[in-house]
Amino acid sequence: MPTSVGVSNDVLGAGSGGQVEETGLGAGREAGAGGRRISVLVVDDHRMFAESLALLIETEPDIEVVGLAATGEEGVEMASSLSPHVVLLDLELPGIDGVEATRRIAAETPSSRVVLISAAPDDDAVADAILAGASGLVPKVAAPERLIPAIRAAVEGRIVLPEDRHDAIAGRLADRDRPGDQTLGS
After folding, report:
1. How far apart are the C-alpha atoms of 110 and 119, rounded to whole Å?
2. CB burial class (10 A; 0-12, 13-18, 19+) of residue 128?
3. Alpha-carbon radius of gyration of the chain
4. In Å, what is the CA distance from 28 to each residue of 14, 16, 24, 61, 134?
């Protein structure tokens, strides 16, 4: 059975078509309905990067970081025990990679949304992770103000991709939809 995935065109880039308001960090955001905050788990093997992301995220009054993990296995375990709204997950991790971690998180904690983060994302791996349940990608080279809209979009159930990667990744997802096509990039 073919898999259909709707992809928002460049929620992270300048051509977002108004899908995500990019107001910058902390610009007039109030806590969610009833004071409920968006919970985020950061999974990255580079401690300084992970802690910097946490500091950036914590500038938002309605978003909180509930944990940091350094491996795919730790990320899966923490996602299962914490049930965060969003898991920011590096694609390249020691132990199980981001694709397999996404697959496990989606199976064990289906209410959590996975947003991939990567320094050099491979389009095939990103497409595989989206098919496994990821809600998109924020490249590590993106401007910091791109992260918060991506978290919010994931909570809203949208798949987010950077403008410069959208067509390539969407093409790989479309290739996967073709009957009899079992691998990406073939």
Report:
1. 26
2. buried
3. 16
4. 20, 20, 9, 9, 28
Q: How far is the C-alpha of 90 from the C-alpha of 182, rounded, in Å?
A: 25
Dihedral angle over CA of 5, 12, 136, 167, nearest 10 = 50
Amino acid in position 86: V
Instruction: Please give the model's pTM, rounded to 2 decimal places.
Output: 0.76
Distance of CA 179 to the CA centre of its chain: 28
The CATH code of domain 36-177 reads 3.40.50.2300
- Tens of pLDDT along the chain (186 residues) come to 333 334 444 333 333 332 322 223 333 333 344 458 999 999 999 999 999 999 999 999 999 999 999 999 999 999 999 999 999 999 999 999 999 999 999 999 999 999 999 988 788 888 889 999 999 999 999 888 899 999 999 999 998 888 877 787 887 888 776 554 444 443
Strands of 113-118's sheet, edge to edge?
63-69, 38-43, 86-90, 113-118, 134-139
Query: Which distant-in-sequence residues (6+ apart) come within 8 Å of 138 by Cβ?
Result: 12, 88, 115, 116, 117, 146, 147, 150, 160, 162
Query: CA torsion sign, 15 to 10 to 137 to 27?
Result: positive
32: left (phi over 0), alpha (psi -120 to 50) or beta: beta
